[in-house]
Amino acid sequence: MMASRMLTMPGAFRQSEASQRVSRGRWNPRSATPAAWLGVGIVIALALIAAIGPMLTGDPDKQVLRDRLLPPVFFGGTWDHPLGTDQLGRDLLARAVVGCRLTLLLSLAVTVASTVMGSLLGLIGGLRPGRIDGALRFLVDVQIALPVIVIAIAASVLFAPGFVLVFLVLLSTGWISYQRVVRLQTRSLSQAQFVEASRSIGAGEGWIVRRHLLPNLAGTIAVLATQQMAAVILFEAALSYLGLGMPADAITWGRMVADGRESMLNAWWVSVIPGLCIALAVLGFNLIGEWFGTRRPGVAS
Amino acid sequence: MREHRIRTIDDWNLTRRALLASLGVGLGTVALPHPHAGAQSPEATAGARAESLTIDLSSEPDTLDPALTYTPAGWSVVHSVYDSLLQYDNDGNLELLLAESWEWTTPTTIQVKLRPDITFHNGEPLTSNAVQFSLAHITAEETASQVSANFAVIESFNEIDDLTFELVLSQPAPWLPAQVAAWLAILPPEYATSNDFARNPIGTGPYKFEEWRSGESIALSINDDYFAGSPKGAQIADAVTYRFVPDATTRVADLLSGSAQLVQGVPIDQTGSIEDGGQMVIAQPVSGTAFVRVPNTVEPFIDPQVRIALNMAVDVEGIVEALDGGYGTRQANLFVPSSIGYDPDIAPYAYDPEMARELLESAGYADGLSLKMDVSALERLDIAQAIAAQLGEVGVDVAVTQKEPALFNAPDQWTGVAEDAAELRVITWRPLFDPYTLLSLMFSNTGFLSRFDDPTIQGLIDAFSTESDPESRSAIGRELGKEMHDNPAAIYLYDLTAIYGLAADAPPWSPRADEYVIATYRGE
Amino acid sequence: MARALATRLIYTMLVVLTAMSVVFLLLHLSGDPADALIPPGSNPDDVAALRAKFGLDKSLPEQYLDYMRNAARGDFGDSWRSGQPAMHLVLERLGATLLLAMTAFLIALAVALPLGVVAGTGRYRLAGWLASGVGVLGQALPAFWLGTVLILFFSVRLGWMPSSGREGFRSLLLPAVALAAFPAATLLRLVRVSVADVMGADYIRTANAKGLPGRLVLWRHIARNAMLPAIAYAGVVGGFLVAGAVVVESVFAWPGIGQLALQSVASRDLPVIQAFVAVVAVLIVLANLLSELVALLADPRLREASASGAVR
Question: Which fold does the domain C86-307 belong to in CATH?
Answer without folding.
Answer: MetI-like fold (1.10.3720)
